[in-house]
Amino acid sequence: MPHISADNPLYFITSVTNSRLPVFRTDEFRHLLAAAFNEARLSAGFKIFAYVIMPDHYHIITDNHRKPSEVLRYLNGISARRIIDYLKENEYIYSLDKLKKEEGRKEYKYSLWEHHSNTFLLTTESMLLQKVNYIHKNPVEDDYRFSSVRYWQRRPLLDVEPLEMDIKDISWKVK
């Protein structure tokens, strides 16, 4: 991978749940989201360098293997499908009702994510480190399980990390 630059930016993506519902307040749903992100990464062939999953949003830093809109389509599309299917299979009717959007005549679809995600281009190593620090300070807990903090601070990893990072693939100008 070439060095981070204006010609080779990374993407800092933030996506918020519909109506800021705290869908990911339990480990059960955070694990589902992390697994969906891994599925999206493998399906689309992009890398993930940093992330955090909060109750009503996520932040993620990825490469530019695909356009930001395509990365979002994979991340939000696969995760929405997995979460909504899980809610249906486990009869979380109340939660599904909150995500329901009327479509046509008595037909419904569900919307997990707001449709206006934020994408910010990272064109320097200092911008990358600033956003990585922001991501890791987002949770109040110091050793929050659903973030990449252990990778970046070179702490011992969990026996089973929710989501593996591709940090080794970053080409640094200064080592």
Structural write-up:
This protein is of the alpha+beta class and 175 residues long. It contains five helices and six strands. The strands form two sheets. The protein has a four-stranded antiparallel beta sheet with strand order 2-3-1-6, sandwiched between helices. Helix 1 (27-44) packs across helix 2. The radius of gyration is 17 Å and the shape is globular. The two termini are 15 Å apart.
CATH H-level homologous superfamily name: Transposase IS200-like
Give helix and strand order, one letter per element, not per position. EHEEHHEEEHH
Low-confidence stretches: none
| Arithmetic mean of pLDDT | 92
Cα-to-Cα separation, first versus last residue: 15 Å
Give the % helix.
25-40%
Fraction of residues in β-strands: 15-25%
Taking the sheet with the most strands, its summary is:
4 strands, antiparallel
- The strand line-up of the biggest sheet is 2-3-1-6
What Rg do the Cα atoms give?
A: 17 Å
**Mind telling me which CATH architecture this is?**
2-Layer Sandwich
CATH fold-type name: Alpha-Beta Plaits
**Number of helices, counting only DSSP H or I runs of 4 residues or more:** 5
Q: What structural class results from the helix and strand content?
A: alpha+beta
